[in-house]
């Protein structure tokens, strides 16, 4: 099991580095595919279907919304247009699902509509910030996008290592019995340290004119990674809470040793938008 999980993790890391390096359509399309699967996993977990149903109009509306959203995200990136198109897609998807609710009443309960829209925001929209970060107009995206990996998968690795070595105090005994306070602190501190090293010794040289001294770049990156690491743990725990609420072990079986898309990308989903907004705020 451990070997399978390790091999899957390495393959995913290689694929992630590849598509994030290329950016543009090469990143947008894989994220679109991942979002479709994650949306399906969430709607299934949250029971957006009636008894015996495999698909329904509410879910199909969400798929159409995801397709429209990612097309607009790509167009916004290549045309350097304002992101109001993305907000329009989000609102139109919500209104379309409300329309399905009204037209087919009483086929769906209000809770199913809310769960379907929550699933749309939670996975597809939040994951899209990986692409939006990579395509930041200032050209800094190619450097900043790696902070998402540092904050999510880097935090996971550091937290696991510290937790195994010195973890004693359980911080979420019901929700995640294996997580320790020491591991959480180690994950945040480790991400911040990796971020500082990356920002101070590489990113600063990449984004600043030769000979310019700016000690705040490394600190800013460390802050972004530390906050992103905290949010990555929130994302991990939130995904676990949904599983426990609905008595499921994994969201799927797509990734050997990990489960579904939501099982592997749960931390990155939340870290991506946080990285995007903090980069705009702290790095301009």
* Cα separation of the termini: 44 Å
Give the number of domains.
2
SSE pattern: HHHHHHHHHH
Subunit organisation of the chains:
single chain
What's the helical proportion of residues? Answer: over 70%
Question: Main beta sheet, described?
Answer: none
The Rg value, from CA coordinates, equals 20 Å
> Low-confidence segments, ≥5 residues, pLDDT <50?
none
- Return the average pLDDT rounded to an integer: 86
* Anisotropy-based shape: globular
DSSP strand count: 0
Please, could you describe this protein's structure?
The protein is mostly helical and 284 residues long. The chain has helices spanning 2-22, 24-45, 57-79, 84-103, 110-134, 141-144, 146-166, 181-207, 216-245, 261-283. The protein folds into two domains: 1-21 and 139-284, no CATH class; 24-134, no CATH class. The protein has ten helices and no strands. α2 runs antiparallel to α5. The mean pLDDT is 86.
Brief synopsis:
With 284 residues, the chain is mostly helical.
List keywords for this structure.
284 residues; 0% strand; globular; 2 domains
């Amino acid at each position: 099991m451990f070997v399978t999980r390790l091999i899957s993790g390495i393959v995913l890391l290689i694929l992630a580095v590849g598509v994030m390096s290329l950016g543009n359509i090469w990143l947008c399309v894989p994220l679109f595919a991942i979002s479709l699967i994650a949306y399906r996993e969430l709607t299934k977990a949250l029971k957006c279907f009636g008894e015996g149903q495999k698909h329904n109009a509410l879910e199909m509306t969400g798929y159409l919304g995801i397709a429209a959203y990612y097309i607009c995200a790509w167009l916004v990136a290549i045309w350097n247009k304002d992101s109001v198109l993305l907000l329009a897609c989000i609102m139109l998807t919500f209104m379309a699902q409300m329309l399905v609710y009204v037209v087919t009443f009483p086929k769906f309960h209000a809770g199913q509509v809310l769960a379907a829209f929550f699933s749309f925001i939670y996975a597809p929209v939040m994951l899209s910030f990986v692409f939006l970060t990579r395509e930041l107009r200032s050209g800094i995206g190619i450097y900043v996008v790696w902070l998402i990996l540092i904050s999510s998968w880097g935090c996971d690795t550091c937290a696991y290592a510290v937790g195994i070595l010195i973890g004693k105090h359980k911080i979420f005994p019901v929700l995640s019995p294996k997580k320790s306070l020491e591991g959480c602190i180690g994950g945040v501190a480790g991400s911040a340290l990796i971020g500082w090293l990356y920002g101070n010794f590489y990113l600063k040289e990449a984004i600043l004119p030769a000979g310019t001294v700016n000690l705040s770049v490394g600190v800013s990156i460390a802050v972004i990674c530390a906050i992103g690491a905290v949010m990555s743990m929130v994302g991990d725990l939130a995904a676990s809470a949904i599983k426990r609420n609905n008595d499921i072990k994994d969201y799927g079986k797509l990734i050997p040793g990990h489960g579904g898309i939501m099982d592997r990308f749960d931390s990155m989903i939340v870290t991506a938008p946080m990285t995007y907004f903090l980069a705009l705020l702290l790095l301009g």
